[in-house]
Amino acid sequence: MPAIFTDEEREGLRHTMLDAGWTCLLERGYRAMRVEDIAREAGIAPGTFYGFFASKGDFVAEMVAENRRALMEELYGLVAQARRQGRAPERAEVDAWMRAAWHSDRAIFRCVDVADFHKIRRALPGDVSMGPELAGGVLSSVAEAIAAAGGAPDAELAASLQRVCALTLLARDEFSPEVLERTLDALIDATLDALYGRTQEEIIQNQGDADE
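and the corresponding structure tokens:
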């Protein structure tokens, strides 16, 4: 890496490249995206790219890993704050986090197909585990907090529903855009029901809707 870059400049360039990578990935897809495209979008020379990343595959793996770490840090923060206050994370808090994550353009499942997803998954750093579900392990910690507060969460079902969210996005070409987002929202609602249960008011409302 050129010595003219300070640590701060290197970190700034790295983030610029990662942001450019998401733009290129969304526009071109994993297979068609080239290092030259990323460099052009980031405003750097291709040689500078290789001063940071050995290959396109390593670069995309870092894009995904950084995004996942940020998501996990945010949700772990919600869980930790709730524990300090002697409670479980509120449904509305987890709801907002989950919808922001799944509806984000940086949800990798929106940008790749199944084969590319598995290729990227194999290249992830060792500190990042990633099944098709968004956050199975973290959902377990949410479920534990809910159980400690007297709830009866079904963590296994919640994680399975998150897998279905991922698989739905990987099969996104089978849906119209509107139906795809509505389907995700329905799966998120079901995930939250598995974690928190439904109130009697919600059950009565759903029964009334069904009768109509």
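(Above: one complete record from the training split.) The chain has ten helices and no strands.
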